[in-house]
Amino acid sequence: MKFNDLKSALLSLSIKDRKQLLAEVVIDLTHTIETQVISRREILNNKQGACPHCSSKSYIRTGIDKGSQRYKCKSCIRSFTEYTGTWMARLRRRDVVSDYLEMMIEEQSLDKISAKLKMNKKTAFDWRHKILSALSDKDNDHDDFTGITESDETFFLRSEKGMEVSYREARKRGGSSTKRGISNDQVAVIVTQDRKSAIDMSVATLGRISMADLDKVLGERIKKGKTILCSDSHHSYKGFAKKNEVEFHPINVSKKQRVRGMYHIQHVNATHNKLKKWIDNTFWGVSTKYLQQYLNWYKAKEFIKKMNNKVEALSQISLSDKAIERFLNINSEYEKLIT
Q1: 192 contacts 199 by C-beta, under 8 angstroms
Q2: Cα(90)–Cα(68) distance, integer angstroms
Q3: In this structure, are residues 207 and 182 in contact, taking their beta carbons and an 8 Å threshold?
Q4: Residue 149 belongs to what H/E stretch?
């Protein structure tokens, strides 16, 4: 129904019916915003949360402040609200959060977002990366990889997009490395997924991966007797599997071997291809500094793509109270990677 037709139909109602309809619409809108906007109040009130400062689960409610429930931790004696530590902490424009999440899901550009929501482009950029920091699952409990689990690394050209480069000559975005083969100009991303639903995407190192990189990324999720690891015949994977006493089936890609019975790495290689196309076509490449953020986004995108209410789903998986901490540590994590 067109807007004018709908307006005429509404005006044909009696004043009493119009008032009742308006009240119900307002209630429904408020409910929608409350369920879509990130809020940890219910979790904290049910004693299922923890203090964002010290992670203690011993806290009490201490009243309402500007519409937010305040809590006080019995361990560190610091106070907090349901927003403390989350990506929505200290936001001034919470009224447009649902609209922002919807436009983010639609993968609209920062220019379009800032124009439509009337916000500074830098603010739109910061909101994006605060949300993506909330999607990081480093501090959350992981499900172990079970059954046949494929793992392989892929490489992205190191990029200082948006930063001043002093150690080399500037190159056109999407160019090629000046060095042959795998070098420190390449960023290694380890992608691991089992045949069910568990998946991990992690920026590991510059250049070739080592057994230590695999141990850091996968060590806690690969278990003896639970996981059957399948990868290429790189010595790092062999050493990692041996150290963790995990059944290992190498695929010798250099000899054009693709499948060994039920063992192959074609699922993970397909994920590599889809990931690279998404990053290249949607963003024209991303800075290495933010690469892990976009890996988080890709995982979330795949997770919610079949859900009816994607905005609510995105808000629910970005409830982490470590979001701001991770957001502020992006620079230091990048420094660790390049050094």
Answers
A1: yes
A2: 12
A3: yes
A4: strand 147-157
Sorted by where each begins, the domain ranges of the chain are 3-36, 86-135+299-339, 147-286
- Cα distances (Å, whole numbers) of residue 41 to 50, 69, 135, 182: 11, 7, 19, 48
Burial of 271 (0-12, 13-18, 19+ CB in 10 A): buried
Q: Which amino acid is at 323?
A: A
Q: Among candidates 203, 164, 158, 152, which has minimal Cα distance to 179? A: 158
- Alpha helices, H only, the chain: 3-11, 15-36, 41-45, 97-105, 110-117, 121-134, 211-218, 235-243, 266-283, 291-304, 310-316, 323-328, 330-338
Residue 196 exposure: Cα atoms within 13 Å on the Cβ side: 9
Closest CA to 40 of 4, 85, 100, 3: 85
pTM exceeds 0.85, yes or no: no
- Reported as a single tens digit per residue, the pLDDT across 70-92 is 999 999 999 999 889 999 888 88
Phi, psi torsion values for 25, nearest 5 degrees: -65, -40
Per-residue pLDDT reduced to its tens digit, 34-48: 544 446 788 888 888
